[in-house]
């Protein structure tokens, strides 16, 4: 007998279905893991419903169940389970007509949503979005602390209103008890006076809610409730009777000092009316977990319509902004510019606009404290000094065959192409010969890369700390150039060993160095040629290192900053790869001529005479012409481009791991202290 097929439209945070599949009880039709947890396309859902004999479907709010959905599934579909309390996205009468049973998840998220409501309330009443932006945009020095700075109302002694008084509202009531509100007033679809022993109020009473200290009262008329409440929570399901239950009339009835919090459905609040109320200061603010029509774009007075020719950064609205972009996890709060000017709290350039903030903005208090304690200047992050070297080792281990080919081309006495060089190496010594000299590469990264990243990041951090803003282009060039000079000196001995080990195949067998590894190479160079040989070619190497670091480290940060300002792609691996590509191409073009001279100088044998850099250049020009200085550009680019990309991708990922480790330690400390 065939097992039932279940269409799973999202990656679910549970292993229950997987265990059922492993036991042979069901067969799951799921999206590929690499597509993530985002909503699938409608075409993907419908095609899988048509192509498979689906018995059940697991969906979320964004998956609309209508005639098209049910027609595609056919009569085999018996049950639909939605990971939500609400089911306004499901055509219930049609499902009943076709004998499809519906399941939802009541009570599962009651406490979580209640906590979110409390978070939004504290954010909007205590001006957290404004404080966050003030710190992040560097405005804190111009907004010195005063007794009324970012002042907001307390919940103590206030009247809290609820549109809808189900399980979530009652869970929220219990969370509000420590804040000592005076009253809880609620309006439900059917007037239901509060009674301790009424089963409807069991969620509220099971933890001994202190009704002797905080009054709980039913207010049948929603407009009267709006007039009484200092904070109104909208927690009703969305149906025809609750569509725009918060409209212009409701908002007009609220106090000018009142706040509205919506964690139900976007459609329960008339967005146009809310925007008008906020712009005209009819209410004090709004904290929204949901917005009508999300995800999408919103135009004040006309939701979902964006004025043509307008492109604004949605995270930083300004006076005159007409739209804002949101997604499923938006938190929108009324945003006024509360400037701390002599104790006066008034509207500024941001009056009457929204501030869209993704994720948790609750860290604003900590951010403000950090900024204040550091003298009102940005405190740049610091990372372990060896992080750049570790990233360099990882990248160089992958690109070493191209590095080896570059050195052999640059030290060859006859012209030969990149691929011919690779083929000759493989034919004469096997595939493993492409990793000949890997120990020298790792030694170079442990010396050269550790030094250049450590010096560059330290100098950049000092510049940022001193000025309180990101370094300028000239400052980046100075930091990276200085780091390159120091690293060029420190890394020169490893460079000598690396060049000799990589170019050994170009020499006759009886003339090869034959170093076993990098340590053997260092010992034999000192023994056979003298310690001074370890610093042969120092001047071209330092010069190359300065140019390399300016065109690689400095230009990476420069290109990354430009791409971030253009806002073409979000900050992440794609943007980092694009910045690395630009930096790698620039570095290759500038460094190849220096690299050719450096490699030839460092490969000179003892007894070659005091040829020097000038002599090498004259000899190369006489034999091969000016193009000799770009010999090996292609393998250099093919090596440096992926090496640069991998270097910065590893470096960014390592920094991210350090950040996560620090966050984990900080959270552990908080748990211990609490």
From TrEMBL:
One term of GO molecular function: NAD binding
Entries under InterPro entries matching the protein: D-isomer_DH_NAD-bd, MCP_dom_sf, MCP_transmembrane, Mito_Metabolite_Transporter, NAD(P)-bd_dom_sf
GO cellular component: membrane
Keyword Transmembrane: yes
Membrane topology field: Multi-pass membrane protein
Residue ranges constituting the D-isomer specific 2-hydroxyacid dehydrogenase NAD-binding domain according to the UniProt record: 120-295
Pfam families: 2-Hacid_dh_C (PF02826), Mito_carr (PF00153)
Transferase as UniProt keyword: no
Sequence segments annotated as region (Disordered): 298-323
Compositional bias (Basic and acidic residues): 313-323
Solcar repeats: 383-462, 475-562, 571-657
Alphabetized UniProt keyword annotations: Membrane, Repeat, Transmembrane, Transmembrane helix, Transport
Subcellular localization, as worded in the UniProt entry: Membrane
Similarity-based family: Belongs to the mitochondrial carrier (TC 2.A.29) family.
Descriptive protein name: D-isomer specific 2-hydroxyacid dehydrogenase NAD-binding domain-containing protein
Organism: Pseudozyma hubeiensis (strain SY62)
């Amino acid at each position: 007998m065939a097992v039932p097929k279940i269409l799973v439209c999202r990656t679910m945070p549970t292993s229950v279905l997987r265990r059922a599949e492993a036991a042979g009880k069901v067969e799951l039709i799921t999206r590929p893991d690499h597509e993530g947890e985002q909503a699938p396309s409608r075409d993907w859902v419908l095609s899988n419903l048509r192509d498979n004999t689906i018995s059940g479907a697991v969906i979320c709010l964004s998956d609309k169940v209508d005639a098209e959905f049910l027609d595609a599934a056919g009569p085999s579909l018996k049950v639909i389970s939605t990971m939500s309390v609400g089911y306004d996205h499901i055509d219930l009468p049609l499902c009943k007509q076709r004998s499809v049973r519906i399941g939802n998840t009541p009570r599962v998220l009651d406490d979580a949503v209640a906590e979110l409501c409390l978070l939004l309330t504290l954010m909007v009443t205590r001006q957290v979005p404004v404080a966050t932006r003030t710190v992040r945009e560097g405005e804190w020095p111009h907004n010195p602390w005063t007794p009324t700075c970012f002042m907001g109302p307390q919940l103590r002694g206030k009247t809290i209103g609820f549109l809808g008084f189900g399980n979530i509202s009652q869970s929220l009531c219990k969370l509000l008890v420590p804040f000592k509100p005076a009253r809880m007033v609620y309006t439900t679809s059917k007037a239901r006076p509060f009674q301790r022993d009424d089963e409807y109020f069991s969620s509220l009473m099971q933890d001994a809610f202190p009704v002797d200290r905080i009054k709980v009262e039913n207010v049948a008329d929603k407009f009267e409730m709006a007039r009484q409440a200092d904070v109104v929570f909208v927690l009703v399901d969305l149906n025809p009777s609750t569509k725009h239950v918060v409209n212009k009339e409701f908002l007009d009835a609220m106090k000018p000092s009142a706040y509205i919090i919506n964690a139900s459905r976007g459609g329960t609040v008339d967005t146009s009316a809310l925007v008008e109320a906020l712009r005209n200061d009819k209410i004090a603010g709004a904290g929204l977990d949901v917005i009508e029509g999300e995800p999408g774009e919103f135009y004040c007075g006309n939701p979902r319509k964006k004025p043509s020719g307008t492109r604004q950064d949605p995270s930083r609205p300004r006076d005159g902004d007409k739209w804002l972009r949101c997604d499923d996890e938006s938190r929108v709060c009324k945003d006024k510019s509360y400037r701390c000017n002599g104790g006066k709290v008034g509207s500024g350039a941001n009056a009457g606009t929204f501030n869209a903030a993704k994720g948790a903005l609750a860290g604003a208090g900590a951010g403000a404290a950090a900024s204040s304690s550091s003298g009102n200047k940005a405190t740049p992050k610091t990372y372990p000094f060896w992080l750049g070297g570790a990233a360099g080792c990882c990248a160089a281990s992958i690109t070493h065959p191209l590095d080896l080919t570059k050195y052999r081309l640059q030290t060859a006495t006859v012209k030969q192409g990149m691929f011919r060089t690779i083929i000759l190496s493989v034919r004469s010594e096997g595939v493993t010969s492409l990793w000949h000299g890997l120990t020298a590469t790792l030694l170079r990264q442990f010396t050269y890369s550790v030094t250049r990243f450590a010096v560059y990041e330290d100098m950049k951090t000092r510049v940022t700390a001193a000025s309180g803003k990101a370094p300028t282009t000239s400052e980046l060039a100075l930091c990276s150039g200085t780091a390159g000079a120091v690293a060029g000196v420190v890394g020169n001995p490893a460079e000598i060993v690396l060049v000799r080990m990589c170019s050994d195949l170009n020499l006759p067998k009886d003339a090869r160095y034959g170093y076993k590894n990098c340590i053997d190479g260092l010992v034999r160079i000192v023994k056979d040629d003298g310690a001074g040989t370890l610093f042969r070619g120092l001047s071209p190497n330092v010069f190359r290192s300065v140019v390399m670091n300016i065109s690689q480290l400095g230009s990476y940060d420069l290109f990354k900053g430009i791409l971030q300002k253009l806002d073409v792609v979000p900050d992440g691996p794609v943007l980092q790869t694009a910045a690395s590509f630009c930096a790698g191409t620039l570095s290759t073009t500038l460094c190849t001529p220096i690299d050719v001279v450096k490699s030839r100088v460092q490969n000179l044998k003892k007894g070659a005479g005091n040829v020097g850099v000038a002599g090498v250049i004259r000899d190369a020009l006489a034999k091969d012409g000016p193009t000799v200085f770009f010999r090996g550009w292609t393998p250099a680019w093919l090596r440096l481009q992926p090496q640069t990309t991998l270097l910065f991708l590893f470096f960014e990922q390592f920094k991210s791991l350090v950040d996560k480790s620090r966050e984990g330690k900080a959270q552990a400390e908080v748990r211990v202290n609490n």
